[in-house]
Amino acid sequence: MPDSGRIVPRVTEPPVQVAQRLRARERVVVHVDTLAARWVGALALLIATSWLTVLMIRAHHHHTHWHADSRVAWSLTILAAVALIARGIFLGRPVTAAHAIAAAIAVLAGFAAHLLAFDVTGDVLVAMSGLLLMWPMTARPEPAQLARVWALVEATRGDPVAPFAMQTLKSYFFSADGTAAIAYRTRLGYAVVSGDPIGDELRFEELVGDFVGMCHTHGWRVVVLGCSERRLGLWRDPAVIGRTLRPVPIGRDVVIDVPSFDMVGRKFRNLRQAVQRTHNFGISTEIVAEQGLDDRRQAELTDVLLSSAKGARTERGFSMILDGALTGRYPGVLLIIARDKAGRVQGFHRYAVAGGGTDVTLDIPWRRRGAPNGIDERLSVDMIQAMKQLGTQRLSLAFAAFPEIFNDKQRGALSTFFYTAIHLGDSLIALESLYRYLRKFHALGDRRYVLLPLSQVLPLLVVLLSLEFVPRRRQLPPTASAST
């Protein structure tokens, strides 16, 4: 196997002055995670509500339309601001310098709007100051930690999604001795954990406890996306987590046992036929390290990427995907390339390595429009055979989301609803087409789950779907950027 993992990627860090300014804005000026702060918040909310009630009663007794009473309108504004602040206090959200400044600006702008007779606008701005003051903190991406994370990925065995912890946009929480870590992102007050912890599994239990404590001090609620069956116990203790996280199955890993893999037997007939079609077409394959691409290969592969059916200019995903295809950003990434008999690249697969080469995981398959049928099957099979020669134990092809729904031939009303809902997202990812490809390998493995409090399903759907499907501009290789 090419030793691409020993190449330390170049990471550009922000200037010291910029980092200092960021730290100043993010400095916590008020910690609210105390019993006293909660009492103050509850008392302020009670006083504001009581005052509003008194004003409304007085307006009623004096036959004044309460909508026209400016005092009632102003009291409603103050009540809204206090309620938003109290909510932030009960969620444990600290107040940073940036939040305090934003809230002060909103209040001043609200008073200015009132002076200019824009009363409704002024009331909205003042009420919104409570939201701005208690806006959740955000963890910044930590691409500079790549070397540390890669070392932990190399130490992780049996976890198909471990390499995806390296994705540029993720933040990290390390164990005290640095031998284990959790990858996560924050959004709207939630800390969304990506997959399982990586590194030394003997430190995972302590790591989870410390991570939850850190989230508590930042006012973040914990959600786990892509937890494996064997790690469910890490997140099941309410005494550690602070609340009950319910496991909701979202699909199964598709993991090939590399040493024993063959295509013998009737069940592999469709797979053999797909692979044979590519041989008849004259397809050949080669494996290269992404960080070792020369300019010619990089230009060829970029042409395939840009001519693919979708996702050429943008990229999506969070928990089970890398970014930066063909940029050489990540160590341990291998590419298997399919060429036709004329030497033209028709498709390629991107694989990430973990566990010192014991585990290999498919990141993204790319194929040219009009490429011969069976290209993906051929690339997967040839990669499995090549890794078998190099001692790899497991090769993960992809993640099969909701396979039971696609495999159900007699769907009831609920299954039909979910089946239809899933197909509404075909423009983003064709899950049933992916499942038909994966089932040819007969390698459905362990289930994965999202762990969440069921009382917050609706806001969490927004958070999780935005993390996975909101597009972001793809960073193309330098040679491609120059040519486009």
Automatic annotation (TrEMBL):
<keyword id="KW-1003">Cell membrane</keyword>
<keyword id="KW-0812">Transmembrane</keyword>
<feature type="domain" description="Phosphatidylglycerol lysyltransferase C-terminal">
    <location>
        <begin position="152"/>
        <end position="450"/>
    </location>
</feature>
<dbReference type="InterPro" id="IPR051211">
    <property type="entry name" value="PG_lysyltransferase"/>
</dbReference>
<feature type="transmembrane region" description="Helical">
    <location>
        <begin position="97"/>
        <end position="118"/>
    </location>
</feature>
<keyword id="KW-1133">Transmembrane helix</keyword>
<protein>
    <submittedName>
        <fullName>Phosphatidylglycerol lysyltransferase domain-containing protein</fullName>
    </submittedName>
</protein>
<dbReference type="InterPro" id="IPR024320">
    <property type="entry name" value="LPG_synthase_C"/>
</dbReference>
<keyword id="KW-0472">Membrane</keyword>
<dbReference type="Pfam" id="PF09924">
    <property type="entry name" value="LPG_synthase_C"/>
</dbReference>
<feature type="transmembrane region" description="Helical">
    <location>
        <begin position="39"/>
        <end position="60"/>
    </location>
</feature>
<feature type="transmembrane region" description="Helical">
    <location>
        <begin position="72"/>
        <end position="91"/>
    </location>
</feature>
